[in-house]
Amino acid sequence: MDAGSSNRVWLITGATSGFGRALAEAAVRAGDVVIAAGRRVERLDDLVSAHPDQVEAVHLDVTDSASGVALIDDVVARYGRIDVLVNNAGRTQVGALEETTDEELRYLFELHFFGPAALTRAVLPHMRRRGGGAVVQMSSVGGQVTAPGFGAYSATKFALEGLTQTLAQEVDFGVRFLIVEPGAFRTSLFDPGAAYQSHAMSEYEATVGPTRRYLSSAGTQPGDPAKAAQAILTALDAPTPPLRLPLGGDAVDGILERIDLLRAEVLEWEALSRDTALDE
Predict the structure, then answer these.
(1) Active-site entry in 6, 65, 153, 154
(2) Has 204 been annotated as catalytic?
(3) Is 217 an annotated catalytic residue?
């Protein structure tokens, strides 16, 4: 595989399905080279066979940070660079906090926060030496908007967004950061076996029950992953790319509503908030 004639070299985690797969296909159409990482790489056999000069499938569990760092170094050693890192691997998890075990909560943070943080930290020295690159963090509308039962999920996405917003302020050597916030898209995220649910407690049926039943909407989500992938490429190639990119009308509406409610609440309590300074 020759990366010299390509536009960019991508490393995409969670590339075997959903947004990761759609992004890999979009990057290939653009003439780029894709290192497609995932746990079940056999799902990528068709893409590798169709584009052997552009796609390489590699096994990676992003919760194993040491393996992720080693993969970054290996890709740079063999291809000379990583132009775009996409931290996409993830899963849905539903459960009230009282239903969620410590093990479940810690695993989700390893998957959605500590793994991406380790990969981002590992790629930055290489991008710094080249004077540029891009890091795409696949967050969610849940990184700004909460719902009962999605507390653990949203907490991991809030953390990833806070880290990335800070990175955009502290990294000044040409690296672009893009936080992607999809709403409901027709991926496998809600499929049986993919959407993880903590053990249900009857006490939370009224609040978390509807969220659990929402998972049965798999296959009816309005969003098109292929259009989402193309939108991400468009944003990355923009002269002034956004820091955050909501995807889907539901994401746009939910985030704008949250901003309006937050502003209204701050203004309602502004006088009390400001009246906390030391008296002169």
Answers:
(1) 153
(2) no
(3) no
Tell me which of 65, 140, 154, 157 is the catalytic residue.
Answer: 157
Q: Compute the C-alpha angle 176/179/184, nearest 5°.
A: 150
Query: Cα separation of 54 and 56, whole Å?
Result: 7
pTM: 0.94
Please return the burial class of 202, using the count of CB atoms within 10 Å of its CB with bins 0-12, 13-18 and 19+: exposed
Residue 8 and residue 83: Cα distance in Å, rounded? Answer: 6
Q: Which of 139, 140, 154, 198 is catalytic?
A: 139
How far is Cα 253 from Cα 226, in angstroms, rounded to an integer?
21
Going residue by residue through the chain (280 aa), what tens digit of pLDDT does each one get? 545 445 899 999 999 989 999 999 999 999 999 999 999 999 999 999 999 999 999 999 999 999 999 999 999 999 999 999 999 999 999 999 999 999 999 999 999 999 999 999 999 999 999 999 999 999 999 999 999 999 999 999 999 999 999 999 999 999 999 999 999 877 766 566 668 899 999 999 999 999 998 887 666 777 899 999 999 999 999 999 999 999 999 999 999 999 999 999 999 999 999 999 999 8
To the query of whether residue 157 is one of the catalytic residues in this protein, the response is yes
Query: What is the C-alpha to C-alpha distance for residues 198 and 253, in angstroms, rounded to an integer?
Result: 29
Domains recognised in the chain with CATH numbers: 9-250 (3.40.50.720)
Distance between CA atoms of residues 71 and 83, nearest Å: 14
For residue 137, the SS3 value is strand
219, 152 in Cβ contact below 8 A? no
Which token pair is 35?
């290192």
Q: Locate 229 and state its tokens.
A: 């992938």
